[in-house]
């Protein structure tokens, strides 16, 4: 089956996510008119178990695409199909349910973790929001324990702690456990390692890889970091000012970039990181 990332509306049978012709422009506060579009006709697919890197310069629109896929931002036009369901055509509970297979983790876990909640409460929160296992405290507790164990945090040691008592790497794992607890099929990971020390980056990626192996999870991995893209992703999409200019297997794109922007981006990043 073909993989078409630039403009095709073709849906493959095994697609977990199919994004077609997405557009988005923001309106500045107080401005009468929408500003220039930041996402301009983006189309791509992600299959079950696949890890796809979304790479581009700062401000290219990567996070905006991730947030639209996770349902946190509304596109101006286009379609987002999750397991064949067009989420933009749905509302309320139906939309919430259709979006459950997609969860997101962020660059700064500290911002998304309330300092007043214990790790148990934080990991349980998505179940509360999704109204899953309501009234069954024991089942929820067991799922929290499982989710923490999946990200290599001992439930007995961590459940009663607060976010400020954890290291950056541990907090990022709590973010991953929160995403995992609702059993997603795809995790949108928006620069999850950029605030971590280099050694902790690989640790987090190892935990993410293990989740992929054990549960067949897919990832959309948003990053500036070409070395991590090569380490972690099967395929990559290169975004320039809201447009996907190149896509393909990670090794092929990094070793033999075709588009002038990709050549510049990879050349500059390779110089910096020495990959
Ligand atoms: N809520 C918002 N309101 C107005 N403009 C926004 C908003 N969010 C993002 N933008 C603008 O949209 C453009 C794309 O931003 P986005 O965060 O998607 O890019 P990015 O590729 O993820 O960048 P970075 O790598 O720096 O995080 C930027 O110019 C940004 O200033």
UniProtKB/TrEMBL annotation:
Domain ABC transporter: 17-266
Alphabetical UniProt keywords: ATP-binding, Nucleotide-binding, Transport
Listed Gene3D superfamilies: P-loop containing nucleotide triphosphate hydrolases
GO molecular function: ATP binding; ATP hydrolysis activity
InterPro entries: AAA+_ATPase (IPR003593), ABC_transp_ATP-bind (IPR050319), ABC_transporter-like_ATP-bd (IPR003439), ABC_transporter-like_CS (IPR017871), P-loop_NTPase (IPR027417)
This protein's record includes keyword Transmembrane: no
Any Pfam family hit: ABC_tran
Record carries keyword Nucleotide-binding: yes
UniProt-listed GO biological process terms: transmembrane transport
Protein name as annotated: Peptide ABC transporter ATP-binding protein
């Amino acid at each position: 089956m073909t993989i078409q990332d630039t403009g095709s509306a073709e849906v493959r049978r095994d697609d977990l996510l199919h994004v077609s012709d997405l557009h988005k422009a923001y309106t500045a506060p107080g401005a009468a008119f929408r500003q220039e579009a930041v996402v301009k006709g983006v189309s791509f697919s992600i299959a079950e178990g696949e890890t796809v890197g979304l790479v581009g310069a700062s401000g290219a629109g990567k996070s905006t695409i991730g947030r639209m896929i996770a349902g946190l931002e509304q596109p101006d036009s286009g379609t987002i199909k999750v397991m064949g369901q067009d989420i933009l055509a749905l509302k309320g509970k139906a939309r919430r349910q259709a979006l459950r297979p997609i969860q997101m983790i962020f660059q700064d876990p500290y911002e998304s973790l309330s300092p007043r909640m214990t790790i148990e409460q934080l990991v349980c929160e998505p179940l509360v929001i999704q109204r899953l296992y309501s009234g069954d405290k024991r089942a929820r507790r067991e799922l929290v324990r499982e989710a923490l164990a999946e990200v290599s945090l001992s439930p007995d040691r961590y459940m009663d702690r607060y976010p400020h008592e954890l290291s950056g790497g541990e907090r990022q794992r709590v973010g991953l456990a929160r995403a995992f607890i609702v059993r997603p099929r795809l995790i949108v990971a928006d620069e999850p390692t950029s605030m971590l020390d280099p050694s902790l980056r690989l640790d987090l990626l190892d935990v993410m890889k293990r989740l992929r192996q054990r549960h067949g999870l897919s990832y959309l991995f948003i990053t500036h970091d070409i070395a991590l893209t090569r380490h972690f992703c099967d395929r990559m999409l290169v975004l320039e000012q809201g447009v996907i200019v190149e896509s393909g297997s990670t090794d092929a794109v990094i070793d033999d970039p075709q588009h002038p922007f990709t050549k510049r981006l990879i050349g500059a990043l390779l110089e910096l990181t020495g990959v």
